[in-house]
Automatic annotation (TrEMBL), chain A:
It comes from Bosea vestrisii. PROSITE patterns: ABC_TRANSPORTER_1, ABC_TRANSPORTER_2. One of its GO terms (molecular function) is ATP binding. Gene3D superfamilies: 2.40.50.100, P-loop containing nucleotide triphosphate hydrolases (3.40.50.300). Pfam families: ABC_tran, TOBE_2. It comes from the Bacteria. PANTHER family: PUTRESCINE TRANSPORT ATP-BINDING PROTEIN POTG (PTHR42781:SF5), SPERMIDINE/PUTRESCINE IMPORT ATP-BINDING PROTEIN POTA (PTHR42781). Residues 9-239 form the ABC transporter domain. This is 2-aminoethylphosphonate ABC transporter ATP-binding protein. Belongs to the ABC transporter superfamily.
TrEMBL record, chain B:
The chain crosses the membrane at residues 27-51, 85-104, 116-140, 160-181, 202-227, 257-277, 306-331, 363-384, 396-422, 428-448, 490-513, 533-557. This is 2-aminoethylphosphonate ABC transporter permease subunit. Signal peptide: none annotated. It is a multi-pass membrane protein. PANTHER family: POLYGALACTURONAN_RHAMNOGALACTURONAN TRANSPORT SYSTEM PERMEASE PROTEIN YTEP, PROTEIN LPLB. InterPro entries: AminoethylPonate_ABC_perm-1, MetI-like, MetI-like_sf. The keyword Transmembrane helix applies. Pfam families: BPD_transp_1. It is found in: Cell membrane. It comes from Bosea vestrisii. The keyword DNA-binding does not apply. Gene3D superfamilies: MetI-like. Residues 81-278, 359-554 form the ABC transmembrane type-1 domain. Belongs to the binding-protein-dependent transport system permease family.
Amino acid sequence: MSTNTAPFISIRKLAKSFGAFQALRSIDLDIHRGEFVCFLGPSGCGKTTLLRAIAGLDLQDSGSIQMGGRDVSHASPAERDFGIVFQSYALFPNLTVADNVGYGLVNRRRPSAEINRRVEELLALVGLPEQSKKYPIQLSGGQQQRVALARALATAPELLLLDEPLSALDAKVRIRLRDEMRSLQQRLGVTTIMVTHDQEEALAMADRIVVMSDGAVEQVGTPEEIYRRPGTPFVADFVGHMTFLDAVVTGPGRVRVGELDLLVANAASFSAGTPVRLAMRPEEVRTRSITAETPNRFDATIGDLSFLGSYCRAHLEPTNSRSTRIAADFSTNAMRDLGILPGQVRTVAFPPESLHVFAGGGR
Amino acid sequence: MSHAATPLTMTNATVKIARPRLSERHVAGVLILALCAVLILIIALPLWALLSKSLEDPQGRFVGLANFVSYATTPTLLSSLTNSLLVASVTTAIVLPLAFLYAYALRRSCIPGRGLFYAAAMVPVFAPSLLSGLALIYIFGNQGLLKSWMMGASLYGPVGIIGAEALYSFPHAVLILVTALSLSDGRLREAAEAMGTTRWRIFHTITLPGARYGVISAAFVVFTLVITDFGIPKVIGGQFSVLATDAYRQVVGQQNFPMGAVVGIILLVPAVLAFFVDRAVQRRQSAMLSARAVPYAPRPERRRDLALLTFVSVMALAIVGPYGIAIWGSFVKYWPYNLSLTLNNYDFAAVDPEGWSTYGNSLLLASLTALIGTALIFTGAYLIEKLKLFPRLRAFAQFLAMLPMAVPGLVLGLGYVFFFNAGWNPLGFLYGTLTILVINTIAHFYTVGHITALTSLKQIDGEFESVSASLKVPFWSTFRRVTAPICLPAILDIAVYVFVNALTTVSAVIFLYGADTKLASIAIVHMDEAGAIASAAGMASVIMLTAIAVKLAHVGLDRLVFGRLQRWRQR
């Protein structure tokens, strides 16, 4: 990702409405050559609208899109250079796998031998050799998805667009295909934009994630940035699990939640007395090797425990602030080693750097 | 994907092409504009001609509503209106409960031979409407087999019209009600049964409300069919005049075009009303059934099934019987005095100078209409449904395509007379030619075909056009290679529907045929007028059997298409 060169796609002030509903509100976004970018957000956040605007399938109301240094804001899809895979795959049911993959090649008047060779090459690339004479209905969902991918890549586009390509598949196939797609993308180096509402998928596949909500970009960053340093309460809440508590800033780097005084690593911008929202991830709650020097240490009662396979989620009630409930995850290992049981009182701690402070408490 | 270890050089495999030579946008724009122009010509302008004609005097001067006033103050004209309303209301009241019970037996019971009974109910669809009138004449007419059953009353008048119309409109009601009764959530019934609800209460709290939109829709369809039908009152109405025969008499008999236009507009009212009720009803009906609904599967129940089987058998006999008798009658020497068989009645030239050539004309018309009409209707529906460009124009074309549904054939025929007969119209030379008959018949049956095409197109993945655009394949290639082949069954449906209707229709074309383009259905009217009932029945039977043969061929072809040519539909 050569971020110092000019971006491959640059989107400026892109806006679109459907009647009174604002699907996109002045989107600015740069995408670099070779990047794998995920548009992540709940349904109705505008991520698919943005993808379709980039493809030219649904034109924006205002704003511009540059692609490879060319202004394509008003170009038709055929005048842009991309391949696309839809959630439904949109495979032509009356054509064989080979004809589907070669669909865009036939139109370019290449000799049929060359087309056949290319189709075979693509089918091998997506791991579906020997299937070229079958019809789509004879393939499994995962195989259909691969055919759709091969078809999208057939014309060697500079940009690959994926609209929820994995969400119609069952969990096991989804995980295998997402790893395969990621490594294929890295090998080919094709710039890729994927729309998804599945945060795990976005975290696992993307170089950068664009979190969207309500037609606007909430945050752009690497998966780690998005997860570790969410820029807004929305991102914090949407990606991963998060406990939100109302708090008040009591001094530089200090907040108060109920009866608990906590140190926070990043609340410099708030002055004392400001109501804020404090957010913490359940897996950041520490139970081991807590000493007298450990900051943000407090006693809490283990409330109800729910078993979730490799870990358990507990609800903690601090003994001196009973109305506060904090979610905490304990690995099955920890449960066994420490003998954690409901109703116990234990000493736990929050590392100051794991606490996120957002404006707007008191809700 | 892991074994493709050799790095692929993606860019040298194909050659990037510059802009497409022919802009899809332009082609789409031209096609949609052309569609609008055709629909304006064949639908909107004739209707406009009808409306304006009703506001003119016979010399073509604008007289406002004067024609309507004189219509309302002429007792002989006004009585046709009340006659028509009476006949249509009574027929609807008779047909609706019978058709409901028939459809109920087909969909909600376990009687044997349901497919056969369904087919029996559909027989009248394949015959010109006036064959049911001729059939009743054979049975209950002055020389009828069962004349005594009439107890001295005359068949020729409201009684005969209502009887024949009931026969003719029955399949249309059954068709709608079968669909309505198919759309039911079996879980509702199971829940009711689990609570120990009585059968009668289930019927009037679940079954009937579930089908009520179908009942409303069927009522309007039957009413409209009857009030606008021309053939039956023509052959069996005697001196009893109705709106449809009035319109014919005003235009063809008295050349009083403005008064004919007034009658046409009056006929338009119930049809337009039915159209809007039907649309409102359909929207509700589809909203009523959730995607997760489980279809109801009836369980055998001896007493109910036996009662329904008896009813359905009697009804099927009452429907098929008259047509059988009419066919028989067409082979009889001198009904009912000399019942020996003969082919003389099929020597049509003896009673109509055109002879068998009218049948040839009908076949030619039906084939051309099916061929050209299906191509136009399906392509039009594709342009309206699948192209995302020019939304206003497409909405306008959609409106025009739905319009013929609300226009009875007779009214459309009148509009064609006024439009193509007008002195200023450069297309006047088409009058009386096969071309105008084809155009008119396409317009007449446009909407049903259009809806069939739309339904089929809506079932196709909406992203095919997007995928094609991304692959830089123009939409017309995808239409040819993917969309049309997938929709082949629907295209066949449309072609057969248009063919059968072109064969049987009388109402619109009776105003438009010329000396050498007379159709078989019109020849039937003329032979009946000349008193050659056996030949009229013979020609009508020939048409009916042709239509049924085409339908059977369609069923066979459908199997072939699904079975052999469309291997891709099977796993």
